[in-house]
Design brief:
Blueprint lengths: L1 H6 L38 H18 L3 E5 L1 H8 L7 E7 L2 E6 L11 H17 L1
Parallel strand pairs: 1-3
Antiparallel strand pairs: 2-3
Length: about 130
């Protein structure tokens, strides 16, 4: 995901996974909807996604970001019960945060290229800059 974040213009250089904390200096934060590591998203249950969505909503209420980006439309649909959600800006707000669903950069998501994912991430960056 680091390359997508960089190619979209969120960071001035390609960052290493170990530099995740440095993203805060760019006013970016990254967390998971579900904290349990898995090889594939389909290893997570609907209940885990829903609980993760509930906990994420509490975190958003506490930290009060202007935007919440959820990577993976399947994760977003399951976590927030929105079966019709598509990649892009959502009507829903969580706390005061506007919501944007981004494509998942997983290798299993083959119909999104690095370039097309970077374009979608850049759309969010541009929207956030205007808000």
């Amino acid at each position: 995901m680091q390359i997508t974040v960089h190619l979209s213009g969120f960071t001035p250089r390609l960052m290493k996974p170990s530099e995740q904390q440095r993203l805060l200096s760019y006013r970016l934060g990254i967390t998971n909807v579900v904290a349990r590591p898995t090889t594939r998203a389909d290893e997570l249950s609907v209940e885990e996604y829903r609980e993760g969505g509930r906990l994420l909503a509490l975190k958003v209420a506490r930290l009060r970001p202007r935007w919440l980006a959820v990577v993976g439309v399947t994760a977003y649909r399951a976590a927030f019960g929105d079966r019709k959600a598509q990649v892009g800006p959502q009507e829903r707000v969580i706390g005061d945060a506007r919501v944007w669903v981004l494509p998942n950069p997983s290798g299993l998501n083959a119909h999104w290229t690095a370039a097309s994912m970077a374009e979608e991430f850049a759309r969010l960056r541009e929207a956030a800059a205007q808000a």
